[in-house]
Amino acid sequence: MEHERKTGPHLQEVILSSAGIVATERSSCLKRAAFSSTNFENILTWETEADIPPDTVFDVQYKQYGEKSWLTKHECQSITQLFCNLSRETENFTEHFYGRVRARGCSSSWLRSERFEPRKESRYHRGTLQRSSHCSLTGL
């Protein structure tokens, strides 16, 4: 016979009365990770549950589609903000990328973004791109 009792927004206790076993499972404090891109400034953002502990920090990794290994973004380790700039790591705008984030200080496994393609997903704003007035002609 199995009984389930909620004891908080993230904590569930499952009591297996017939076996006398108590198991505790904590759900993730991360809800969603996604890229946001304007003029090829590619930012991985994420959302958390409302009541995460105040000492929670985040780690970010990324990889190009098709690669097996995740790469660490060193500037985005043990950070407190809910975003990480991955523009340099995702500058090849014809490729596809993934980002992922993990929270430390609350229960969390890695949360991966959807596949991101900068060329198709970056929004463009006029006036923010610089146009060069210099033209270089070689071989004439």
TrEMBL record:
Keywords tagged on the record: Disulfide bond, Receptor, Signal
InterPro entries per UniProt: FN3_dom, FN3_sf, Ig-like_fold, Type-II_Cytokine-TF_Rcpt
Any GO molecular function: cytokine receptor activity
ATP-binding keyword on record: no
Listed transmembrane segments: none
One GO term describing the cellular component: plasma membrane
Short name of one Pfam family: Tissue_fac
Domain Fibronectin type-III: 32-104
Family under the similarity heading: Belongs to the type II cytokine receptor family.
Protein name listed in UniProt: Fibronectin type-III domain-containing protein
Organism expressing this protein natively: Chloebia gouldiae
Taxonomic lineage of the native organism: Eukaryota, Metazoa, Chordata, Craniata, Vertebrata
